[in-house]
Automatic annotation (TrEMBL):
Pathway annotation: Amino-acid biosynthesis; L-cysteine biosynthesis; L-cysteine from L-serine: step 1/2
Organism field: Rhodococcus chondri
Keyword Acyltransferase: yes
Enzyme class: transferase
Sequence similarity: Belongs to the transferase hexapeptide repeat family.
InterPro entries per record: Hexapep, Hexapep_transf_CS, LbH_SAT, Ser_AcTrfase_N_sf, Ser_O-AcTrfase, Serine_acetyltransferase, Trimer_LpxA-like_sf
Keywords: Acyltransferase, Amino-acid biosynthesis, Cysteine biosynthesis, Repeat, Transferase
The enzyme's E.C. designation: 2.3.1.30
Catalytic activity entry: L-serine + acetyl-CoA = O-acetyl-L-serine + CoA
Taxonomic lineage: Bacteria, Bacillati, Actinomycetota, Actinomycetes, Mycobacteriales
Alphabetical list of NCBIfam families matching this protein: cysE, EPS_EpsC
Chain segments annotated as transmembrane: none
Protein name: Serine acetyltransferase
Length: 192
């Protein structure tokens, strides 16, 4: 997929997730979440070349300095990913993020060990993570799930579930509750 097409998809995701989004031009200029994602996409390609891992880390740290969002270049990020507000987001090296995922500010996709193998979370497709949530360790958050604001998740979350609290309690989404729609605004407070 071309970088330009990816940028267009990211801009579309911003419009779909943020009711304050006005135009693609304005969003491209002012949205730090988009800047962090685009820099990560470049750094991730660099990370695939062993000789460029040092420069990839430098790019990711410079982006962190500019945006307040830290995404390790080794992390795998899917299509149409959106970070709303962004400040304080941390995504670890072995994290995997599916398509149409939305994170709010202060989210951590972190590790719980110093092991070299998989130590960060995997988020499925169409997952929404509320402000301040911490998802720690090599856990899996299933497709179409939501993690509430300030939740601390340390175990797997099945598909179509909602995780809230510290430590997070997990329940299946009720039949009348809508699925996370990647084209509409989701208020994470609705899961508390």
């Amino acid at each position: 997929m071309s970088f330009l097409r990816t940028v267009r998809e990211d801009l579309q995701a911003a419009r779909g997730h943020d009711p304050a989004a006005r135009s693609d031009v304005e969003n491209a200029i002012v949205y730090s979440g988009l800047h962090a994602i685009w820099a990560h996409r470049v750094a991730h390609r660099m990370w695939a070349v062993p000789a460029l891992r040092g420069p990839a880390r430098i790019l990711s740290q410079f982006t962190r300095f500019l945006t307040g969002i830290e995404i390790h270049p080794g992390a795998t990020i899917g299509r149409r990913f959106f970070i709303d507000h962004g400040m304080g987001v941390v995504i670890g090296e072995t994290a995997e993020v599916g398509d149409d995922v939305m994170l709010y500010h202060g989210v951590t996709l972190g590790g719980r060990s110093l092991a070299k193998e998989k130590r960060h979370p995997t988020l499925g497709n169409r997952v929404t993570v509320g402000a301040g949530a911490k998802i720690l360790g090599p856990v899996v958050v299933g497709d179409d799930s939501a993690v509430g604001a300030n939740a601390v998740v340390t175990r797997d979350v099945p598909p179509d579930s909602i995780a809230t609290g510290i430590p997070a309690t997990i329940r299946l989404r009720k039949q009348h509750e809508p699925l996370v729609d990647p084209t509409s605004y989701i208020d994470p407070a609705m899961y508390i």
